[in-house]
Design goal:
This protein is of the alpha/beta class. It is built from 14 helices and 13 strands. The strands form 2 sheets. Strands 3-2-1-4-5-6-7 form a 7-stranded parallel beta sheet, with helices on both faces. A 6-stranded parallel beta sheet has the order 10-9-8-11-12-13, sandwiched between helices.
Length: 384
């Protein structure tokens, strides 16, 4: 008789919520369904408008839509937590998998964990601590994560942070899987450049995603004069949503002397609009000042694009220096410029692309299923 699949309740953001964690949760659920019986619980209200003023949902493309998702949790309403816990308990899960990335969720998740005690919980830690630290973040994080039975991290740095707040955690550190669902039209480079608005004879460096200070955009802008002196045909494309600090970056670009070689696409890019930028790019740049890991690397790899990243957090664990891209010191515009020039001068595109293909299994969602399977076997019916 065939063994009955274990039942997992996944808690986290999914379509129509925007952003990398929602993409990740949707992709993880779809793949886990091969090996588990999975129910998905998402948010009735993710963030209050007071904390997150931008639009939180994107209905433009349902690539990551999970049919049957129950939008139960209001993260700011304790009465709702009680009701949500009751509904989750009635689903009779063997394990609960929780997406964790910010201490804002600590009161909600701590309460849910307490009310669902006895059901082992696996926390997927995108960031143990937030990128932008604040008072009490450590205590809030500890309150929530100490109720976990097991943990998944995407870098050894995150595993180290986890050990600071939990005693002898059961965990696996595994690389962030690749996103290849954004290949909707399977565009060639020529078509993608045309749709993005890039001239056929231009080379494209791509900086992609929400603009935040820790992502180090200022450093690649500072590197551009040196890059353009080497090859005036190289352009930097900054594609993503700015906050109120956009004018600071625009002033830096105006002062750089190479404003005509820097293209800005300001605004949230819906899932259906991602392909043309990555398919058109020659190489993706992540000049981060700090990081744990980054879904941008995995989108780039999904398009078989090499990456230049900085030596911070878990980025060196996924960008193999001299094989799938280059690792350079953080806050070092000259080193960024040297890496870009070296990539084009030595004609590394084909070699790096082939190396990205060879690494494919390491970054597969099937491998993530194996990690979850091992952790479900290691966790008994107890809290952390």
């Amino acid at each position: 008789m065939k063994n009955k699949k274990k039942k997992i309740v996944m808690i986290g953001p999914v379509y129509p919520y925007k952003g990398g964690i929602a993409h990740y949760t949707g992709a993880m659920v779809k793949n886990l369904k091969k090996d588990f019986d999975v129910e998905t619980v998402s948010y009735k209200m993710q963030y209050p408008k007071l904390l997150f003023k931008n639009e939180q949902k994107d209905f433009d493309n349902d690539l990551f839509k999970i049919p049957g998702t129950k939008y139960l949790i209001n993260t700011a309403n304790p009465i709702n937590w009680l009701i949500s816990a009751h509904k989750i308990k009635k689903m009779k899960p063997d394990r609960i998998v929780v997406q964790w990335w910010h201490p804002y969720f600590s009161p909600c998740y701590t309460a849910l964990s307490f009310m669902l005690r006895g059901i082992p919980k696996i926390f997927v830690c995108h960031n143990v601590f937030p990128h932008e630290r604040f008072p009490m973040d450590r205590l809030l994080t500890k309150c929530a994560l100490k109720r976990g039975s097991a943990y998944i991290t995407h870098s050894e740095k995150e595993a180290s942070d986890l050990k600071e707040i939990t005693s002898s955690p059961v965990y696996e550190a595994t690389v962030h899987p690749v996103y290849n669902a954004f290949k909707i039209q399977n565009m060639g480079r020529e078509q993608a450049k045309q749709e993005a608005g890039s001239a056929p004879d231009k080379k494209m460096l791509l900086f992609f995603g929400f603009i935040r200070d820790y992502k180090g955009l200022r450093h690649i802008i500072d590197a551009m004069p040196e890059i353009v002196r080497y090859d005036p045909g190289i352009e930097l494309w900054i594609v993503g949503e700015f906050r109120s600090d956009k004018e600071v970056y625009m002033e830096q670009i105006r002062k750089s002397g190479v404003e005509s070689s820097i293209r800005i696409v300001d605004g949230y890019i819906p899932d259906s609009g991602i392909e043309k930028y990555f398919a058109a790019a020659d190489i993706v740049v992540l000049p981060y000042e700090s990081a744990t890991q980054s879904g941008i690397v995995q989108i780039a790899y999904g398009f078989e694009k090499p990456v230049i990243a900085t030596d911070v957090g878990g980025l060196p664990e996924v960008v193999l220096d001299g094989k799938t891209g280059y690792i350079v010191p953080p806050k070092a515009p000259h080193a960024l410029a040297e890496a870009v020039c070296r990539f084009f001068h030595e004609g590394k595109a084909e070699e790096f692309t082939e190396n990205v293909r060879r690494e494919a299994y390491k970054y597969s969602w099937d491998r993530m299923n194996e990690v979850v399977q091992r952790l479900t076997e290691k966790t008994g019916a107890h809290e952390g």
